[in-house]
Specification:
The protein is flat. It has helices spanning about 40-60, 95; strands at about 30-35, 80-85, 100. The longest helix is centred in the middle third of the chain and has 21 residues, at about 40-60. Helix content is about 20%, strand content about 10%. The N and C termini lie far apart (about 70 Å). By secondary structure, the protein is of the alpha+beta class. It is built from 2 helices and 3 strands; from the N terminus they run βαβαβ. Strands 2-1-3 form a 3-stranded mixed β-sheet.
């Protein structure tokens, strides 16, 4: 049985700029964290790492067993990148609660305390249980 060749070296995942402030020249510890979608380059690197992992799993799989089954590769809607900021470079709390676009420039001091993108709408709240649960017969 031939020995499988090792998979090519995987590209590193993009850095989240933590644990410090995401402003490159700032060394103050972060106070605020929010999320944004990955850029095309970040997404390409993440997909390359996942594809490499899958290739390695397929190469190491037992040929006498069913092959591994994988879901779809991640898309931009599946991934969030963390952004950190100190108090001086923070966006507002309301903006930090939302997911920002990949091209969001915050925490650029020129746009603070806002940002230059339109964040995604918050998820719809879970509906409240409006109908009471039935009690067991022996509780009546």
């Amino acid at each position: 049985m031939p020995v499988p060749e090792p998979a090519p070296e995987a590209a590193p995942l993009p850095s989240s700029q933590g644990p410090g402030c995401s402003v490159a020249s700032c060394v103050v510890p972060p106070l605020v964290q929010w999320q944004r979608r990955p850029t095309e380059d970040e997404l390409d690197a993440i997909v390359a790492v996942e594809q490499s992992r899958r290739d390695q799993a397929l190469a190491a799989a037992d040929p006498q067993q069913p092959p591994p089954v994988f879901g779809p590769l991640p898309t931009q809607k599946d991934i969030l990148i963390a952004v950190f900021a100190c108090g001086a470079h923070a966006i507002s709390m309301d903006l930090a609660a939302l997911v920002h676009a990949a091209n969001c420039t915050a925490p650029d001091p020129a746009v603070l305390p806002g940002c230059n993108c339109t964040p995604e709408a918050p998820p719809e709240p879970e509906p409240l249980h409006v109908e009471p649960a039935p009690l067991p017969d022996h509780w009546a």
